[in-house]
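re the bet — no i am not wrong, look at it urself. input seq straight from the record:
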Amino acid sequence: MALSATAPSRRPLRRRLAASFFAAMTFVAVAAPLPATARSAPESFADLAEEVTGAVVNISASTTVEARNRTLPQLPPGTPFEDLFEEFFNRRGQGNGDGAPSRPRSSNSLGSGFVIDASGIVVTNNHVIGDANDISVIFSDGTRLKAEIVGKDSKVDLAVLRVKPDKPLKAVRFGDSDAIRPGDWVMAIGNPFGLGGSVTAGIVSARGRNIESGPYDNYIQTDASINKGNSGGPLFNMNGEVIGINTAILSPTGGSVGIGFAVPASTAAPVIDQLRQFGETRRGWLGVRIQNVDDATAEALSLGTARGALIAGIDDKGPAKPAGMEVGDVIVKFDGKDVKDSRDLPRIVAATPVGKEVDVTIVRKGQEMTKKVTLGRLEDGEKQAALQQPPAEAPTVTRQALGLSMSGMTDELRRRFSLKDDLKGVVITRVDPNSSASDKRIQAGEVIVEVNQEPVTNPADVAKKIDDLKAQGRKSALLLVSNAQGEVRFVALSIE
């Protein structure tokens, strides 16, 4: 990349006029009163950077893997490139296909981190260390120490390391990330492209960003320059407190375009505490499967406005079932914290201590009530079941409504669609591709279990309930739809 100095001006008179103009503008700006809430930009970040840089480290992680033998390209004998290829592959220990042993190959990665405890506790991203079997922490004075993994968590992308220094280390503390606002100044320090100790500054661009990287996405977005190698480094507020851990960037080029993301301290700190104490995470578990509430669903459930997390399934062995929670309940508050949408609930529940009894406010058929739930522990190995793909062939149609062709449950349909033996309801045999049902991804082979939270057993039941809703002036019908395995979800369809 070429660097060039700015060319000097060739018009001295214009430069003097411009200087006078800006001086006048400055006078006017100073003379005008500033709003009471306005805060001037910092004159320099140098003092702040000098204060905290000693706690920011570079992370070097190496993974040694066994290299696979590689056969030399088949070249005609005597070709002028034969010796060249043989030397190339042998020099890299990749073998020549004659059974010679191959040498181990090392994969290296660089990232950033920071010290949170003077005794030698370092925080970084989980993706920085990965499955490394050799991790080193490099300090600003050049000191290099071997590190061991205390614990790591892939869901929030955090890792805690321990080093053994000869003397106490410079450490930084976490700040209140919930107090920051878009527009607040922040400063990032890290190891971009191996250039350790790089300081960049910017503002908080947004909060609560969901970048679809995990179940607890709640990122701080910043325009402070973040590049490859900054991962795991701290994002500071103007008090020198860590309010975020730089984790990801959005970039079409691979370099910074002013859109970086940091895990908030409020999300990271509880996870780090658990990793330090237990070597693993111990998250709260409610035992429900949820979905978001859109406007149509809110109208069908008499919620008023779209809010909360709609329970679409309950684990038989989870804490929610003995507490009296039911499919169709909408959780609007958990342990005193408002649940604005379904994204909020997993994050709030996970941060709540295992075994704690909490109040859960739900809305059931338009009525608000509170349930007491004692939280269990989330099993990290728990995986979401794959969606069942229904067969393309459909049986004979018996009734149509809402763009759906429906039939009563029969042994033939149960076999054709591989439906569970205990699954009851009305079988969907065809979906009009131009209907709202198709837009909501309802598919042939699924089963309507309830309409507006009342069970249905045949197509006539569905048709009657839809007619009743129209007579009441309702604009949508709330269907409880099950796949072949019995996993249910709510779908609101327009009946206008």
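see?? The longest helix spans residues 12-31. told u. also The radius of gyration is 30 Å. so pay up
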